[in-house]
Amino acid sequence: MGTKSERLGNDAELLRDQTPEYMLLPKMRFRLSLSEFWGDEELKNSFLDIIKRNNMAPYYQDVCQDFYWEMDANLYNEMHQINVVTWEELEAGNTNLNIEEDTKGNWRDMLDYACKIGDTDRANSIATSIFEDTNNSSGVRAEAAFCLFRIAYFKSNVLSMGKAVKNINDLMEVSCNMGSNWCCRNKLKAYEALYCLAVRNFARAVSLLLDCIPTFESYELLPFKDIVQYTVLAGMISLSRSDLDKRFNNNGILQQSLMIECSAYMDYLNSLYDCHYADFFQHLAWIEMEMKFDPLLRPHYQYYVREMRIKAYSQLLQAYRTLSLNRMAIEFGVTEDYIEQEMARFIANGRLHCKIDKVSGTVVTVSASGCDRGQPPDASCDRGLVYQNTIKRGDMLLNRLKKLGQVIEF
């Protein structure tokens, strides 16, 4: 059976690789706020079970007020009493928040408990006081800054997430000799990647995520499975097909994780890479729903889906000089009218460099007009097309100015 200390050591080792339950609540709460999940009793019960297990009285009160749920007074009083007793014990053992790194203070216990019960105001106050006190070591201040990021993530406060990332970077720049510098930089990759996803910087996000996957240890923030999923989402939109092959298909850790835990994301990745466009459109529709239900990604799902459709169209057209609309419709599993209308919109906006020949029912690529096929589609090789687009946009601007002049008295 082993000694008590050995058992506690094994438990700590297991918990270190697990994300705290309360860090799973933001996504669940966000889903419950959407009309699609208003009647999902299973999700609601799972959400409340986590609250009950962790005696999250402050969070329970806030949730009931936010969702207009009838609060169970007996449950709240029971959890609140447990919180009060625990806080009294923690505060009795704490005399000073100016804690040196090698001193066994209990500010971490207080901070962890405030986060565990969802008392974000108190947690933010403790972490801020630790971070702002320059008498504390850089390692302690960085630890507090990481917690401030988690609090901001818990509350879906993107602005505060960015502020925390900046503070951690500043700390590491002025403390190059900090003993835990490598550890902090390694953890920061996952934290900063989440912030980059929230502000739609997918290229920076995938670079950070790919770097942190082999040495991921930020389980206190989110599960490794989420890191893998975010890596696929960010990589698909920001990397070229050759880079996907180099950095995804040849990445053993990523491929293993996709096969074991994220097979749907692997199918999404392979459908575009293997040019199975009808399957890709189906997987993209599923990805759209996943992004809509994620508090970080929901503001960007429409942009993401549009860019991925453009990417798929461009990838197919690069292999042809001309391609019939009917063939494209078959490839993507949609109707010919749908393909024509969507491509016409992307062409008019300058996002696809091709022309639609309505008479013959074909799409003529830019390279078919005399451009060097070795150049990328967005290169200014077809000067005629560039000129036509410029004239078209100039005419649109003049028409708008003319209409504006009719209603404004100079």
UniProtKB/TrEMBL annotation:
GO terms for biological process: proteasome-mediated ubiquitin-dependent protein catabolic process. Residues 201-370 form the PCI domain. PROSITE patterns: PCI. InterPro entries: PCI_dom, Rpn7/CSN1, Rpn7_N, RPN7_PSMD6_C, WH_DNA-bd_sf. Keywords: Proteasome. Coiled coil: none annotated. Transmembrane segments: none annotated. GO terms for cellular component: proteasome regulatory particle. Belongs to the proteasome subunit S10 family. This is 26S proteasome non-ATPase regulatory subunit 6. It comes from Vespula germanica (German yellow jacket). The lineage of its organism: Eukaryota, Metazoa, Ecdysozoa, Arthropoda, Hexapoda.
